[in-house]
């Protein structure tokens, strides 16, 4: 039971992501078919991976795969090497294949490691590649799509498959939604045989591929429950020329609140892939999620934070973040929160919306004033305080000499900040 847990504090947040090679380790350990591969963080490690992979299968093809927390790597390109893709196949020929493949991998790894890969999911700034996965080349017959998604609307995992593997599933969903087949999984039963058979049939599979696909789906959906994933996406899931069914790519993310049950997964976290602002917020025990808008919000309580974002949108603005400083925040915590918000260059204005219950308005006011003195204030600030010690709080802000606009209520505050940022 959760209440009995006394281990180390683990990050609570929306979702924890891991790399493809880690997802494949987890799958392999559960009997789910993946190609063999070896992780490399240096050029020498990448070269050393080639011989064992080629000799294991007698197949002279290896694939060098950039490990970043973003998809679209195959079509992505390096800023430093515009002709080089993030997933590159090395075909060295049967004769003398190993040495030739080693040399090719040496050159590729030398370029890829430390360079910046831009894909449709990284944004134009791209992501630095620090790890490579050297993988066996697979003889692909067809590329399919498969995912297990936690559907919050029905509180169940949903298995989705499509014949349109290798392409962006969002495109398929938009233009040809009939090509996505779904099965909702009853948690008490798991994926039923008839459901798996239905989907495998819908994918047009026959013979060994049909049977292998059913085993694959059953094992993967069981793993989703065991590992507390909120998403497993296999794109592509491939059928090999020999009728095997294999995960060629693997994206997994987990319910961060369940990671106390999976310390080995919590350790797979790669902080260099995460948003620095979210990491800093986690250190101060703030619930913070970065969004795309321009209005920074500082709020106490998750419910009030949600309704603040709603009202900002309602009056025509876009929130830059979700930030809940919590019920018992100290002035220090408020200062930390304020600094995190102001660091974001997209923030064009800040809305502080606090209901002082347990949290007193004067504490918030002191924190805001201290933070502004420390980091300065380049953008408009609207403060709405309500609750315990509200008069004292307002007095502290008024006497601080800061350029702060006070708001009489939530909607008034939202309207004022939206106007000031226009
Ligand atoms: P991403 O989705 O980030 O582009 P993938 O792992 O899906 O990365 O790889 C992109 C494409 O590269 C795949 O659709 C597949 O065609 C090819 N590919 C990836 N891994 C292998 C492999 N081990 N053997 C053969 N082809 C591969
Ligand atoms: Mg993929």
Q: What portion of the residues fall into strands of 2 or more residues?
A: 15-25%
CATH homology superfamily name of the largest domain:
Succinyl-CoA synthetase domains
Helix content: 25-40%
Bound molecules: adenosine-5'-diphosphate, magnesium ion
Question: What top-tier CATH class of the largest domain fits best?
Answer: Alpha Beta
Q: What's the β-strand tally?
A: 20
**Assembly annotation:** single chain
Q: What's the CATH architecture of the largest domain?
A: 3-Layer(aba) Sandwich
Backbone shape? elongated
Biggest sheet, open or closed, and with what strands and sense?
7 strands, antiparallel
Q: In angstroms, what separates the terminal alpha carbons?
A: 50 Å
Mean pLDDT over all positions: 91
Rg on CA atoms, Å: 25 Å
Supply the helix-strand structural class.
Answer: alpha+beta
- Might you state the CATH topology name of the largest domain? Rossmann fold
* Number of discrete helical segments: 13
Low-confidence stretches: 1-12
* Count of individual domains: 3
């Amino acid at each position: 039971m959760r209440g009995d847990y006394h281990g180390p504090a683990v990050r609570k947040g929306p979702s924890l992501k891991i790399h493809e090679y880690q997802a494949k380790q987890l799958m392999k350990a559960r009997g789910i078919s993946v190609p063999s591969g070896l992780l490399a963080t240096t050029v020498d490690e990448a070269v050393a991976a080639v011989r064992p992979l080629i000799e294991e299968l007698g197949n002279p093809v290896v694939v060098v795969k950039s490990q970043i927390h973003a998809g679209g790597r195959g079509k992505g390109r390096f800023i430093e090497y515009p002709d080089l893709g993030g997933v590159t196949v090395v075909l060295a020929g049967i004769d003398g294949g190993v040495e030739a493949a080693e040399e090719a991998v040496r050159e590729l790894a030398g370029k890829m490691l430390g360079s910046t890969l831009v894909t449709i999911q990284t944004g134009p700034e791209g992501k630095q590649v620090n790890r490579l996965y050297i993988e066996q080349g697979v003889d692909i017959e067809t590329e399919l799509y498969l995912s297990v998604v936690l559907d919050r609307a029905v509180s169940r995992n949903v298995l989705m498959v499509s014949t349109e593997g290798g392409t962006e599933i969002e495109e398929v969903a938009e233009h040809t939604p009939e090509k996505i087949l779904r099965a909702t999984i009853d948690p008490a039963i798991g994926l039923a045989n008839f459901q798996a058979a239905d989907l495998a049939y819908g994918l047009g599979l026959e013979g060994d591929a049909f049977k292998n696909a059913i085993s694959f789906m059953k094992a993967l959906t069981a793993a989703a429950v065991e590992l507390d994933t909120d998403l497993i996406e296999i794109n592509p899931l491939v059928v090999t020329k020999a009728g095997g069914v294999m995960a060629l790519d693997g994206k997994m993310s987990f319910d961060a609140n369940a990671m106390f049950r999976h310390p080995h997964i919590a350790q797979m976290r790669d902080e260099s892939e995460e948003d620095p602002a979210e990491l800093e917020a986690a250190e101060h025990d703030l619930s913070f999620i970065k969004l795309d808008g321009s209005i920074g919000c500082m709020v106490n309580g998750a419910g009030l934070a949600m309704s603040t974002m709603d009202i900002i949108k309602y009056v025509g603005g876009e929130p830059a973040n979700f930030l809940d400083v919590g019920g018992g925040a100290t002035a220090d915590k408020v200062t930390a929160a304020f600094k995190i918000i102001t660091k974001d260059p997209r923030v064009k204005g800040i809305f502080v919306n606090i209901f002082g219950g347990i949290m007193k308005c004067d504490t918030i006011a002191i924190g805001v004033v201290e933070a502004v003195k420390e980091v300065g204030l380049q953008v408009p600030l609207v403060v709405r305080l309500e609750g315990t010690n509200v008069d004292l709080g307002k007095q502290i802000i008024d006497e601080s000499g800061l350029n702060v606009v006070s708001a009489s209520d939530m909607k008034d505050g939202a309207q004022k900040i939206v106007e000031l940022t226009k």
